[in-house]
Design goal:
The protein has 186 residues and is an alpha+beta fold. It has a single domain, classed as Electron Transport, Fmn-binding Protein, Chain A (Pnp Oxidase, Chain A, Roll), CATH 2.30.110. Helices cover 24% and strands 31% of the residues. It is built from 4 helices and 9 strands. The strands form 2 sheets. Strands 2, 3, 4, 5, 6, 7 and 9 form a 7-stranded antiparallel beta sheet that branches. A two-stranded parallel ribbon has the order 1-8. The longest helix is centred in the N-terminal third of the chain and has 15 residues. The radius of gyration is 17 Å and the shape is globular. The two termini are 22 Å apart. The relative contact order is 0.22.
Length: 186
């Protein structure tokens, strides 16, 4: 998704500056990439610290559409949930194309870095699940909680991240972030 690449590049420039990557923020050439468990653990830590993330879906014309969402922290398999209006554009977009990206970054704590999760979204209208995930204060947004909102669950397929705090760094030459395939596990 082009927008996800743009968001990653903009984030790297914001964290690193527009010049060459600082050697302190790049992986030393010849050094082994971080283990998948380290990448996932750092990503989970970052996502628990960040309140809002960008959720990117694709519209009918193939144009990526990003919006800020209040996502739930990821579960043990990095599955991400959020709530939305069933009449929103993103719901229609997800019905037509479930491929999405979730991108999390905290401008107030750039040392945390960022995480991007690519995966597949599914719309959830199950009343028991909606009740279980209901947050106090949502009644302002969804006074009719039975029909006024639904959940979206994103099953991850790939995770990429950059986090100086966690020692998860980018490639010194290409700036490619560390990443791991998650295989769409639930």
């Amino acid at each position: 998704m082009r927008i996800a690449c743009t968001v990653v590049l903009v984030t790297l420039v914001a964290v690193l500056g527009a010049g060459a990557m600082s050697p302190a923020l790049a992986q030393t050439p010849g050094t082994a990439a971080p283990a998948p468990e380290a990448i996932v653990g750092a990503a989970r830590d970052l996502m628990q610290a960040v309140r809002y993330c960008a959720v990117v879906s694709v519209d009918a014309a193939g144009q990526p559409q990003a919006r800020t969402m209040d996502v739930f922290p990821p579960d043990e398999n990095m599955v991400v949930w959020f709530a939305t209006n069933p009449k929103s554009r993103k719901v229609d977009q997800i019905r037509k194309n479930p491929r999405v990206t979730v991108h999390c970054y905290d401008a107030h704590a750039p040392e945390l870095g960022y995480v991007s999760i690519q995966g597949r979204a599914r719309l959830v209208t199950d009343p028991a699940e909606k009740q279980r995930r209901w947050k106090e204060g949502w009644e302002v947004h969804w006074p009719n909680r039975d029909e006024g909102y639904l959940l979206v669950v994103i099953t991850p397929e790939r995770l990429e991240m950059f986090s100086p705090k966690h020692g998860i760094l980018a490639d010194a030459v290409t700036w490619q972030p560390a990443g791991t395939n998650l295989g769409g596990k639930k």
